[in-house]
């Protein structure tokens, strides 16, 4: 057996080794500089270098193939590779019963159970979550006005209490911040209960912030259940999250409405349900997710590999949420 050409390996190291090495360098720089705003551009530059390396290696491979066998042969090889890739995609989609069998975690909204950069495998299969029945009117009421009860009085508002207090200063927000457990939000068929939840920051500090703990429906209280499935869904057009792309969040409720299924989700590192997010500048909210908008549930993850996809689509910087970890009561 011939020994490997050491000189050739040194002069032209394997592409995968270089890419993984640069990715590791990005992760190290990102960790070391995450609390240094003035140097936050360094991880971004390294992430951009990964993208340059990807295109450079592909271009080099095509060029060397053309030089060795001619451009006609290289074009044919490229077309064959594309056909094989498309065939493999459809085969995996068929086996996993979904049109989108893979995805990448973009944000830190699912910490600590999913990390930014995780590569997730998705399957179209029944989803495990709290299962409840609603009438069409009850489902519609979840997107209607909210009534907030506090200090013996109440106020009515669009959106939700948490989203409102992120944008405005009001007496109800003062009460909410001082004692979240004493403030109750009634929104249609749901009643939301809050508590002061600890948030730990990457710089070692921590503080308390209001967050959702319990949802009451039809006389029964529900805590977020970390045993419920995590799904990948495409937010309906017009929702706040529609511009973000596919969302990877845990299902809180699976709602049956006259034989049709809808889902309510929450990120494990988010203070409220996706349904409660409201953009007061545009008047946009999120709505219950129809079954048709669900790509499937997460059945496996591969750490770090998803970063290559994130960098290719321009997601070079992590969001501020990656520096914080929320803790709340759950099952």
In brief, what are we looking at here?
The chain is α+β, with helices and mostly antiparallel strands.
List keywords for this structure.
331 residues; alpha+beta; 2 domains; 7-stranded antiparallel beta sheet; 8 helices; 32% helix; globular
Structure description:
This protein has helices at residues 6-11, 15-32, 41-69, 71-96, 136-141, 161-167, 171-178, 306-312, and strands spanning 102-104, 119-123, 130-133, 146-150, 153-157, 184-187, 190-201, 206-217, 220-223, 230-233, 247-257, 260-266, 278-279, 284-285, 289-290, 294-302, 324-326. The protein is α+β, with helices and mostly antiparallel strands and 331 residues long. It folds into two domains: 6-96; 119-326, no CATH class. The strands form three sheets. Strands 1, 2, 3, 10, 11, 12, 15 and 16 form an eight-stranded mixed beta sheet that branches. Strands 4, 5, 6, 7, 8, 9 and 17 form a seven-stranded antiparallel beta sheet that branches. Strands 13-14 form a two-stranded antiparallel sheet. Strand 7 (190-201) and strand 8 (206-217) form a beta hairpin. Helix 3 (41-69) crosses helix 4 (71-96).
Rounded mean pLDDT score: 92
Number of structural domains: 2
Structural class comes to: alpha+beta
Number of helices: 8
Residue share in β-strands:
25-35%
Largest sheet: 8 strands, mixed
**SSE pattern:** HHHHEEEHEEHHEEEEEEEEEEEHE
> Rough shape?
globular
- Rg, Å, rounded: 24 Å
How many strands appear in the DSSP assignment? 17
- Helix fraction by DSSP (H/I, runs of at least 4): 25-40%
N- to C-terminal separation? Answer: 58 Å
Spans of 5+ residues with little confidence (pLDDT < 50)? 6-11
